[in-house]
Design goal:
This protein is α+β, with helices and mostly antiparallel strands and about 350 residues long. The protein has two domains: about 110 residues, Rieske Iron-sulfur Protein; about 200 residues, Naphthalene 1,2-dioxygenase Alpha Subunit, Chain A, domain 1 (Alpha-Beta Complex), CATH 3.90.380. The strands form four sheets. Strands 11-17-16-15-14-13-12 form a seven-stranded antiparallel sheet. The structure holds FE2/S2 (inorganic) cluster (FES) and fe (ii) ion.
Length: about 350
């Protein structure tokens, strides 16, 4: 099942350096994603029009992307500029072009416009989803980290998991879930413009809230940092938002102590999803703390993965058969409602 005529974040910008090419698996198809020496990203079918070699095994140089088989060179716009074996006197066939997908770069990701029907006008595409807030890349008040992890789970199940806070005390009992309350009804929830949002507040019990803040700080080995009032009245909040087609953002806010996790959930096909995460923290900003922070992100991602990979049916039934959703599944319900509307509009196929 795929959402069409939509923007998907498909790769971390940092993963495709200048002069490199790599494979991209997306909705069961294979693409080559490459970046020219002057920094322009292109995403093209991973098949050379000459004799079908895999372009992702090619090279990127001054002449663009060259095929590993006979060295045809393709430019960022997809056109072949050179066929080495026949010199410059022979014309290059018009069909020697790659037909790339529209792509953009923002929020640290490479995005593609996915419309397998080919009906979208490339010069009249909607804007990217307004993902955020996230820190600017040069904001010295934050430290960021990135990573990827592949799950054997349908991308819609994965999207739902990232919108679903009520699993925290159970799935994440070995990490941050240990201080989450069982009752996690959002105080604010909405669904509009292809986005689902919820906000959850720590209970009004001051000590409980302090415990949560302390727990989070302890989790990051910062319990005794100067200036942190452990009995403070910080209003602990979590903001969780999802933007179709495939990006989620979880923000944990305890006063100045903030963690954000933005993740692109890339549907590779065959029930496999590649999660590209970007973590931002407003504390312990030294690179020396990166190993510790990465280990913690890896750990709670693994906690989710263990459970989400067991879900049956593998693909959620949008019409409500198979799962028994209740009031506390408010965001899952909202997401499925939004997806049913997409299906009615012919955009979920
Ligand atoms: S198959 Fe690519 S140049 Fe021949
Ligand atoms: Fe989780």
């Amino acid at each position: 099942m795929q959402l069409i005529r939509a923007w998907y974040a498909v790769e971390l910008s940092s993963a495709v350096s200048e002069g490199s090419v790599q494979k991209l698996h997306f909705h069961g198809e294979v693409f080559a994603i490459w970046r020219s020496l002057d920094g322009k990203v292109s995403i093209v079918p991973d098949r050379c029009p000459h004799k079908g070699a895999s372009l992702s095994a090619g090279n990127v140089g001054e002449q663009g992307l060259s095929c590993p088989y006979h060295g045809w060179c393709f430019q960022s716009d997809g056109d072949c500029a050179k066929i080495p074996a026949q010199g410059d006197d022979n014309p290059i066939p018009r069909r020697a072009t790659l037909g790339g997908l529209p792509c953009r770069e923002q929020y640290g990701y490479i995005w593609i416009w996915w419309d397998p029907t080919g009906q979208s006008a490339a010069d009249d595409l909607p804007a990217l989803p307004g993902v955020g807030p996230i820190p600017e890349s040069d904001d010295s008040g934050w430290r960021s980290l990135e990573g990827t992890v592949v799950w054997q789970a349908h991308w819609l199940r994965v999207l739902e998991a990232f919108m679903d806070l009520t699993h925290a005390p159970f799935v994440h009992s070995g990490s941050f879930g240990a201080m989450a309350p069982d009752q996690l009804m959002p105080v604010d929830q909405w669904c509009r413009d292809d986005s689902v949002y919820e906000r959850v507040i720590a209970p009004r019990d001051r000590h409980y809230r302090a415990d949560q803040g302390r727990g989070l700080r302890a989790w990051f080995n910062q319990a005794d940092e100067k200036g942190v009032d452990q009995e403070s009245d910080d209003a602990g909040e979590q903001h969780i938002q999802l933007w179709l087609a495939n990006v989620s953002l979880v923000r944990v806010v305890f006063g100045d102590f903030q963690i954000s996790l933005m993740t692109a959930h890339v549907p590779m096909g065959d029930g496999t999803t590649r999660n590209l995460w970007r973590h931002f923290r407003s504390f312990l900003r030294s690179p020396l703390a990166d190993g510790n922070a990465r280990g913690r992100v890896d750990r709670f991602m693994a906690e989710d993965q263990r459970t989400v990979e067991t879900l049956t049916p593998a693909m959620p039934d949008l019409d409500g058969h198979g799962d028994l959703l209740v009031a506390s599944d408010v965001s899952t319900l909202a997401l499925r409602r939004m997806l049913r509307q997409k299906r009615n509009d012919g955009l979920l196929i």
